Input
Amino acid sequence: EIVLTQSPGTLSLSPGERATLSCRASQSVTRNYLAWYQQRPGQAPRLLISGASSRATGIPDRFSGSGSGTDFTLTITRLEPEDFAVYYCQHYGSSPFTFGQGTKLEIK
Amino acid sequence: QVQLVQSGAEVKKPGASVRVSCKTSGYTFTTYGISWVRQAPGQGLEWMAWISAYNGNRNYAQKVQGRVIMTTDTSTSTAYMELRSLRSDDTAVYYCARAMLVDTALDHWGQGTRVTVSS
Output
């Protein structure tokens, strides 16, 4: 089973700043099948990025994903108030398709 | 537009079973599969299982294999997940999510169903 470790656990930033979230896998992610999801309080998760770097339909271009193998990054440029939420990475190349523990992005 | 609408909250006793439904619309049901993901109170996301609405193929996380039964009804474009032998640590919000294949990202999610297991 691949273990995904996200860092930091909590990130405190101000609107307009840049956020960099990390996701590290315990072994190489098959075909870079790595997704990022955003979850706002009381809501279901929403797909942001799949295939490590492909934005999902309707996702603003301030969200970008990068990385390969075992190290992946979600970058959010110019934070908007609605971006403050919890972010999860997930690998989906080999079962079980585990999630990271999440990074909480909070307003500073 | 693609929608996944889940059944309402449930309260069950330990040892009982719960069945959650996920009614879909806005796409061809049999072209995709459905994954089930749960989230315990204040915790992260846990992938449980996936079923193909095309051919019924299934894939399970070892943690729940043997206790989860997934079915689909193509006449109503609805997926079902039954969890048996409930324990207190099964208390969670259960989500269904669309995934074309077992190894694709979850691109649309239901609103979640809260299941509480308590004596």
About this structure: Chain A has a mean pLDDT of 97. The two ends of chain A are 35 Å apart (CA to CA). Chain A touches chain B through 26 residues (CB under 8 Å).
